[in-house]
Amino acid sequence: MCEMLGVSRSGYYAWAHRPESPRRKRHAQLTQEVARVFWQSRRLYGSPKITEALRRQGIRVSSKTVARIMKKQGFQSRTVRKYKATTNAQHTLPVHENVLNQQFTADAPHQVWMADITYIGTDEGWLYLASILDLCTRKVVGWHVDERMTKELAIQALEKAVQRERPRGEVLHHSDRGSQYASHEYQKRLLAYGMKSSMSRKGNCYDNACVESFHSLLKKELVYQEKFRTREEAKRKLFEYIEIFYNRQRLHSALGYQTPVEYEHTFAKLA
Description:
Elements: H1 2-5, H2 9-16, H3 22-40, H4 47-56, H5 63-73, E1 112-122, E2 125-134, E3 140-146, H6 151-165, E4 171-175, H7 179-182, H8 184-192, E5 195-199, H9 209-221, H10 231-246, H11 260-270
């Protein structure tokens, strides 16, 4: 082969065994780190979040470099169709004023909680998820799943949130006008816990945008990527996504690329 290429045997072996340049070595290391973060994110992070994750670990790299590495390696963030969630607002129960009025800011945890219900399909049938999101930290403070979309589903999510967080002071609780949230039993719980009820305007999904955005993420990043054979399998996957990935690992651009739990801890340090 050396004769065909017109090079000496010694010259070829010197080229083949030359030491790797520092630049090539750094690029190889960066490729490994990008791959590690990409797979740890469940193949969900694009180049901006991977760049931020690497910077948090002390690895200085530009977003353009990460994007080039991802393209070369064939790493593409998973994106899927949108979904539409719904609750039953066709009822004669009393509804409350839209106190929140799309003011999607809070100065501290436990000032505003936002609640919503969505559905997950399995081979055994539907599974319903009631979630409560803290507006300040974007942390899911309470959630519950059941085979039926009843007021008890919503009540259990509220109970778990209160037991887990033990909020002090009045919490503004915002939801849509679904019968689960408008029920006398649910409203009694809110009063007992010193919470003020706020409800979206009829047919306006933007009034509850933050928690609906979380459910949209959950659908795109988990539900539409999996096929659940049983409801129990779906419950396990929901626990892993909400408690391990979303609350504790997933970086949020709105939180300065911190996780909800990390952002929550910044307030504990100030207390």
